Amino acid sequence: MTTDITIIGAGLGGLTLARVLHVHGIPSTVYEAETSPTARMQGGLLDIHDYNGQLALRAAGLIDAFRGLILEGRQAMRVLDRDGTVLLDKADDGTGGRPEVQRGELRRTLLDSLPAGTVRWGHKVSSARALGEGRHEVTFADGSTAVTGLLVGADGAWSRVRPLLSTATPEYADTSVVETYLFHADTRHPAAAKAVGGGSMMVPAQGKEIFAHRESGDTLHAYVGLAKPQEWFDAIDFTDAAAATQRIAQEFDGWAPELTALIIDSDTAPVLRPYYALPTGHRWDRVPGVTLLGDAAHLSVSNGEGANLAMYDGAELGEAIAAHPYDIERALTVYEEAMFPRSAEAAADGMQLNGLLFGDDAPHSLIAAFIEDGETA
C-alpha cells in the first residue's frame, strides 16, 4: 500500500469501508465527532437488503454475525387506511430479502470487527484543505490536524469533506417527519400495537403519513410525516413536548384513534427530522486523493436505501482500493464510475416512492404499486 487512508465518520458506511480494508490487510484511521460509541441513540430498525447491504456485509466477512442480529418476523408489512381499515397485510414467511436489525447492534458489530484504535472518537472536523499531489489536511475542532494521502468523506449530509469536490449543498425536500416511541406496547398501548402488527405499518394519505414498526423489546417506533414547508415546522416549539404533540396530532384529526395514539400517547418527546437532499445525480470531477460515500455523496429523500447504499459504497470502495493498491486514482475512478449511476437511480426511486406516499391518490397508488410488484393483500 503506497498511501495512508483517513475516513471521516464512523457511521455504517465509514465503518464498512474500514472493515473491508482490514479484511484485505489495509490499515485505515476513522475520525468520528461523537465522543464514544454510545454518545447518542443509533436510530431504530434497518432493513438490510440482499442486493446491496448484505453484499457489503459479505465483503466485510460479517454475514454470519449479521444473521445473528436479525429480528424474526419483522418483514411483515401492513398498509392501512386512515380509518384503520387494513388494505394490505403481508406476513413474514422468512423468504423476504430485507431482514430487519437494530441499527445500533449492526454498528457495534462493525466496530468490534476493527482493530483497537482504528476509530478516533471526539474528533469533530472543522475544515479540510488540499495540500497538492493528492494529499489533504484535516483540521479538527480542537485545533489538531491530520494529513493523509487518501481522504474519504463518510460524514453524512453536512459533510466537511464534500466542499473539496463539489459546491452542492443539501436543500430541504419539502417534507419532515416527527419521531415518537411507544414502549411496552402490547400491554400499555394494545390498540396501536395491534394496528402496527408484527412488523411495519404504513398509513399514507395526501400530504401526510404515519409509518411505524415494531422494534425489539416490545417497542413501537413511529415516523409521522408531513409535506409542509420549513416555516410551518419552525412555528412549532418542539421544546414544549405537549404543545408540539398536540399541534402535530391536529393534522391527523379524524384518523382512527389506534393510529393517532402513535402520536398522542408517545412515551418520548416528539423529535423533528427534516428531510434534505442533494441534487439527483449529484457528481463531481475526479479530484486526486479524495472521495465521498453514503449521504455525503448522494443524500436523498428517505427511501429505505440510505444505510444500505452507504455500506455498499464502503464495500465497493474498499474492494476497489484492494484491487488497485498502488494506483489509488484508478481505484477511486472505478468506484465513482459505478457509484454515480447507482445512487442516481436510488434517488429517483425514492422520489417516486414519496410521490406514492404523499400524493393525491394515496394510499391507492401505493397499493397498486405493491400489487404490480407481486405483493399480495
TrEMBL record:
It holds the Pfam family FAD_binding_3. Its cofactor is FAD. This is Flavin-dependent monooxygenase. Keywords: Cytoplasm, FAD, Flavoprotein, Monooxygenase, NADP, Nucleotide-binding, Oxidoreductase. NADPH binds at residue 40. Belongs to the aromatic-ring hydroxylase family. TetX subfamily. FAD binds at residues 47, 103, 295. Monomer. It comes from Streptomyces pulveraceus. It comes from the Bacteria. It catalyses: a tetracycline + NADPH + O2 + H(+) = an 11a-hydroxytetracycline + NADP(+) + H2O. InterPro entries: FAD-bd, FAD/NAD-bd_sf, TetX_monooxygenase. Its EC number is 1.14.13.-. Residues 3-324 form the FAD-binding domain. An FAD-requiring monooxygenase active on some tetracycline antibiotic derivatives, which leads to their inactivation. Hydroxylates carbon 11a of tetracycline and some analogs. Its main location: cytoplasm. It is found in: Cytoplasm. Consists of an N-terminal FAD-binding domain with a Rossman fold and a C-terminal substrate-binding domain.
